[in-house]
Amino acid sequence: MEQVEINYELIGQKLGEDIFSKQGTLLLKAGTKLTEYHISLLKNHTLGEKVQIFTDIPQSKFKSEPITLKPYEELLKLVEEEFNELIHTNRSTNFQSLIKKVSQVLLTSMQDTNITTVIEKRKSNNYIIQHSLNVSILSAMIGKLLGYSKEECILIGKMGLFHDIGMLKFNESLLSKIELTREDKEQIKTHTVLGYDLLKTIPYIHPLIPQASLLHHERINGGGYPMKFVESKIPFFVQIVSVADTFNAICSDRPHTPGAPFYYAVQEVVKEAEANQLNPAIVVPFVRYLMRQQLRESVMLSNNQEAEIVFIHDHEPHLPLVKIGENYVDLRKEPHIRLKTPV
């Protein structure tokens, strides 16, 4: 334990001693996990005195055993080769080898708290291939965040890997267009069915893998495509892939649109959850995980002030507590201020 001054950065920490008022009334017991209310209470009653806080902060369930760029790049190359063979011949001579290597990278990536930095650093000339691998890794990570077994997470990762394979059925001239016509957009929507028809012909493939290709653009309110399914008809693992797909698509550079900043992508997936398009039961834990990687990082706010992220709220992680100079600002209470870009 250590003696510290009361400040809002202690939210989430455990109190190391009983706190009494000047009249001797017990205010807070030792072991209390401090909330914003507790901090305000302590500020009012301790009048600048320090309090004891437990310093044995539990480690994250995700051990830092970082994946490097090399296995990521090697797998990226293998995915491109096997996808191209599947598209042009409707078969893959090294399919099982691909699955094995994907599983190995997924196992490593699920132990890496900073896997998103590897995804961000690597830029590929083939958007579809890189997007597919990124969605695979993110999908498996979300599965782990939600408490699924290693085997289930690897399955979810495989679903993410193949979700967009139908896009490779289109000519490069269509995929690289700067501006898409209405007809172009309708044609591209057929990638879901094209991918499903291709994947279901592969022997011994798990049925959820072609389902992910077919249904990853469905939305839980029935506003997606191609089937306009509602939540009850969309497998939950497919809903996980949809969240990973949406987030990575927003972040990624494409011929017809540049990638958006990280915080914008976070806010957009939250908006889609609030609009009942993406499942909040998936989005909130995912965003909480992403935002906790930003703790203590400096950020530029939408009001052009620089701030430090000091606390992530469990249920609204996209609206953290930030420190601007010596002042603490809860973005949940400031609807006109949003996170903008890292500093």
Describe this entry's structure for a reader:
This protein is of the alpha+beta class and 343 residues long. It folds into 3 domains: 2-53, Alpha-Beta Complex (Molybdopterin biosynthesis moea protein, domain 2), CATH 3.90.105.10; 69-259, Hypothetical protein af1432 (Orthogonal Bundle), CATH 1.10.3210.10; 294-342. Helices cover 46% and strands 10% of the residues. The protein is built from 13 helices and 9 strands. A 5-stranded antiparallel sheet has the order 8-7-6-5-9. The chain has a two-stranded antiparallel sheet with strand order 1-4. It starts with a strand and ends with a strand. 34% of the residues are buried.
In short:
The protein is built from 13 helices and nine strands.
What is the CATH-assigned architecture of the largest domain?
Orthogonal Bundle
Level of helix content? 40-55%
Share of residues in strands:
5-15%
What is the class of the largest domain in the CATH system?
A: Mainly Alpha
Low-confidence stretches: 56-65
Main sheet summary: 5 strands, antiparallel
The pLDDT mean sits at: 88
Strand tally: 9
User: How many domains, as an integer?
Assistant: 3
First and last CA, distance = 33 Å
Q: How large, in whole angstroms, is the Cα Rg?
A: 23 Å
Look at the helices and sheets and give the structural class.
Answer: alpha+beta
**What's the SSE pattern?**
EEEHEHHHHHHHHHHHHEEEEE
Tell me the CATH superfamily of the largest domain: Hypothetical protein af1432
Biggest sheet: strand arrangement: 8-7-6-5-9
CATH topology of the largest domain: Hypothetical protein af1432
Treating each run of at least 4 consecutive H or I residues as one helix, how many helices? Answer: 13
The global form is: elongated
